[in-house]
Amino acid sequence: MVEIKLKKGKEKAVYQRHPWVFSGALDKVKGKPENGDVVKVLDAQGEFLAYGYYNDQSRVAIRLVEWDESVGIDEAWYAQKINTAIDGRAHLLANEETTACRLIFSEADFLPGLIVDRYADFLSVQILSSGIEKAKETIIKVLVERLKPKGIFDRSDATARTHEGITAENGLLWGENPAEFIEVKENGIKYHINIAEGQKSGFYCDQRDNRSILASYSKGKTVLDCFSYSGGFSLNAFAQGAAEVTSVDSSALAIETLKQNIALNQFEASKHIAIQSDVNKQLRQFNDEDKKFDVVVLDPPKYAPSRSALDRAARAYKDLNRRGLMLLESGGLLATFSCSGAVDIETFKQIIAWAALDAGKEVQIIKQFCQPEDHPVRLSFPEGEYLKGLLLRVV
Ligand code: SAH
User: Residues 250, 282: one domain?
Assistant: First the structure.
């Protein structure tokens, strides 16, 4: 096995079990590792620190996976990591009212670059590191043995792969192909999911808890669900008796799926308005018309993919939230989210405070939202905390 010595002082983060070693921390590479190979990481004195996946194409040159020198990174190791992750979700898997959840969440589950989502009888997999790519066959074998899915579908078409120097993949990895739309349930609500062509791995199960929290404020209310995708917030609002729901998304597939989902749950289509449009444009139009809603949801895509994009993202979040707040009257609620890891909760609060000031609204935080238990945050890897949100009441 190739051994890589770190520069003096760079062992500290490894001791703290942070899983990333940046290329600037490497001192000497003994041997010629291929990208994706498991390498031994040593401190400046040559003492063992950890094992990790090597990649010279990535800013993160080594993704650490194991800190115990006596353990081999073999099939038994993958089985142990995968089974521990799945065991941790046992009660979610046992819940027949929720058949969509994340089973493996990358670094948080000690498998950097592997994401596995369960959608009823199928698994949707994203392989985002060259180390996981090399172990793909083993991982599929373990998943099949443990979960006996009908099929495993590869949705590794994310930009993260290009940073690792691996090509995008989209196709069947094992078993049978899922139908164009398969049905799942989340808290008893039915959804159609297009595993092959839907966004990300097909569905955003990270908003499961937040959808259901927000729905409890929706009875008898007019709700505007911006960036609705397949209707997570809209459908939950209907389930709790919303008077009328307006959903806005720019994607045709999102709006088509949302309409199917309204029908699937036998919600009243006459109380639903689906608008395929750019949210900013639509909010401007609503503001021009002096339109008001009781509850507004803003769940935009990631505006800040990295810290360097923070300034631009802050302006975009501010403008969006200013427009959203202007649609609310006293007592109205805004549920606003950011899934940018680079924007922490305190920064997000500051941005929303500016938005409220510009909108001329006084607001109170009445709840904070976060990511659910199947997207855990390892304390030694705070970067894994990405989803945050605020429930605000206009005074
Ligand atoms: N709230 C959703 C998830 C939102 S994901 C849920 O609960 O499932 C972000 C969504 O924003 C995607 O569906 C994407 O199509 C949409 N989107 C991205 N940019 C947009 C824009 N400028 N205007 C409208 N929709 C946009």
Answer: yes
Beta strands (DSSP E) in the chain are 3-6, 20-22, 26-30, 38-42, 48-54, 60-66, 100-105, 114-119, 122-127, 151-154, 171-175, 182-186, 189-193, 222-226, 244-249, 272-276, 293-298, 328-338, 363-370, 388-394
In this structure, the answer to whether residues 239 and 386 fall within a common structural domain is: yes
Structural domain count of the chain: 3
Q: What is the CATH number of the domain that holds 53?
A: 2.30.130.10
Residue 159 has pLDDT above 80, yes or no: no
Distance from residue 235's CA to the centre of ligand 1 (Å): 15
Q: Average pLDDT, stretch 135-140? A: 97
pTM: 0.96
The answer as to whether 141 is a domain residue is: yes
Domain that holds residue 308: 204-394
Do 264 and 366 lie in one domain? The reply is: yes
Ligand 1: distance of its center to the CA of 251 in Å? 7
Q: Which residues contact 365 (CB under 8 A, 6 or more apart)?
A: 349, 390, 391, 392
Q: What is the pLDDT of residues 250-285, one digit of tens each?
A: 999 999 999 999 999 999 999 999 999 999 999 999
Mutation probe of ligand 1 site: the residue of 250, 296, 299 with most atoms within 8 A of C-beta? 250
CA of 301 from ligand 1 middle (Å) equals: 6
Pocket of ligand 1 (CB under 6 A): 199, 204, 207, 227-230, 232-233, 249-251, 254, 278-279, 299, 301
Q: How far apart are CA 112 and CA 61, in angstroms?
A: 12
Of 38, 66, 94, which one is at a domain's C-terminal end? 66
pLDDT for position 158:
73
**Does one domain contain both 59 and 83?**
no
Q: Which residue's CA is the closest to the ligand 1 atom numbered 12? A: 229
Which of 66, 93, 113 is the C-terminal boundary of a domain? 66
Question: In this model, does residue 202 exceed pLDDT 90?
Answer: no
Residues of the chain above pLDDT 70, percent: 100
